[in-house]
Structure formats: structure tokens, C-alpha cells
Amino acid sequence: MTQKIIVLDRDGVINEDSDAFIKSAEEWVPVAGSIEAIKCLKEAGWIVAVATNQSGIKRGYYSHQTLSEMHQKFVDLLDGYTVDWISYAPYLTEDNSPARKPGTGMLQAIENRFGCSLANAPMVGDTMADINVALAKSMQPYLVRTGKGKRTLATGDSRLQNIPVYDNLHAVVEALLA
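== D,D-heptose 1,7-bisphosphate phosphatase ==
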């Protein structure tokens, strides 16, 4: 059996998002059910990777060290389960970095790390950047209503037409594992 892989956005999918940015481990609060969802994926044998834009670093809102503290809190909450990979892009949109979503650099890094193609693999996000990068890599995007998801839906963007929409990560994972 081939091991299954899933890519998750962070802010708005795994943890609560803020237009003022998540700037500390204290502000990093999981979305209800997200930690349990990741544990379910791990119990089912999935590789779980995270790809997250973190422009707050370049904006000077927090440091790489603070981001590490946020991720350590995340790992601690998994209570012995692990996330297999966390990629982040500390760049601004105007930097035009291929790493920053909707650029595919973080997803390419995940493919390189696990020696696989992400084609047809699920990617869960809450923004058009998440949807666009998933489509660019021929992945199956899922949109959640948490984070910026409701705002994303409200745009009426035609690219959302055939994208499955769920209330949260837990609901996506329940559907994937059913």
C-alpha cells in the first residue's frame, strides 16, 4: 500500500487566524477539532505536511525563534503524534518568492523530502492562495470555512466551483477517512 500524504495550511486551518497576525505561542490557538483530526490522520498512517506563508517574520511582527515556539506548542498539543514536515515562507507577496503560496516552492520541497508526487493528494486551506497552489500542483484542494474560508467563499471566485467545502479540518478528515 502506498502511504497517503496530505498538505495542510496552518493559520485558519490548524489554528485560529487573525488579520493582525498570530505573533506568539500564546496567540497560537488550535481550531476546535484540528488537533484531533491530525491525530486521526496519523493513526490511519498518513504523512501530514504543513505549508504556511509566514510574512509576519519579514514584516518584523515576530522572529524565526517565535515561529519555532508556535510550532513547538503545536507539536506538544499533538501529545506524542507527529507532523511529518512543516514548510514556511517568510516572504511578502511583492518578494515574488516561488516559496510563498500560491508559488509551488513549499510543495516542491515536500515532494523532494518524501520522494513522491503530490498530484491528486489532498490539500486543505482557507484562502485562494491555498486553492491556487493545490491546483497548480494537480492536487485535490479542500476549502474550510474556518479562518478566512467564509471570506474566500464570499468572493464567488469561479475556481471554487468544484472545490469541496467543509466546516473545518476535522470535517475534511472525517470525509477522507470514511
